[in-house]
Amino acid sequence: MIKATAGKDDPERCNQAFTVAAAAVASGVQVSLWLTGEAAWFSLPGRAADFSLPHAAPLEDLLSSVLALGTVTVCSQCAARRDIAPEDVIEGVRIAGAATFVAEIMAGGVQALVYLGLPLAGRERATGRD
Q1: What domains are defined for the chain?
Q2: How far is 104 from 98, CA to CA, in rounded Å?
Q3: Cα-flanking dihedrals φ and ψ of residue 108, to 5°?
Q4: Closest Cα partner for 56 from 85, 81, 84, 19?
Q5: In percent, how much of the chain has pLDDT > 70?
Q6: Residue 119 pLDDT > 70, yes or no?
Q7: Which of 96, 108, 112, 129 could form a disulfide with 100 if both were Cys (CB 3.0 to 4.6 A apart)?
Q8: How far apart are the first and last CA of the chain?
Q9: How confident is the model at residue 31 (pLDDT cuts 50, 70, 90)?
Q10: Is the pLDDT of residue 125 over 50?
Q11: Distance between CA atoms of residues 79 and 106, nearest Å
Q12: Is 88:54 a contact under the CB 8 Å cutoff?
């Protein structure tokens, strides 16, 4: 399981989550990608195509790979806060809540990776810039 919490607000961290998810499914690993926080926007048609990061694979391609071979879920509270409804999301993306998340991470053999977006102050501390 891979949980992405960052979107355009933290492009490198966002892209890392999608890259790892796509690499894992390409390697035959069963992947469940959860889009939470600002990453929830990428559940909408066209949003991944609008994202770009130098020297990175297109987010739209990475998302397509995961959708083809794994599962993609948007956090229900995150979707609600952004007025994202089930009929709005890309075909194959589901909206689910905490109970589903917990059930997935508690299944046998599951490894969870979480790519957290840091608040601006945290990014400054993490990079040493003031």
Answers
A1: 2-118 (3.40.1260.10)
A2: 10
A3: -60, 135
A4: 19
A5: 87
A6: no
A7: 96
A8: 34
A9: very high
A10: no
A11: 23
A12: no
CB 62 within 8 A of CB 19: yes
- Residues listed for the chain: 130
* Residue 100 token pair: 């589903």
Q: 100-114 burial string, b = 16+ CB within 10 Å, else e? A: bbeebeeeeeeeeee
pTM of the model: 0.86
**Least confidently predicted of 41-45, 81-85, 100-104:** 100-104
The secondary structure of the chain as a DSSP string is: -EEE---TTSHHHHHHHHHHHHHHHHTT---EEEE-GGGGGGGSTTTTTT---TTS--HHHHHHHHHHHSEEEEEHHHHHHTT--GGGSPTTEEEE-HHHHHHHHHSTT---EEEPPPPHHHHHHHHT--
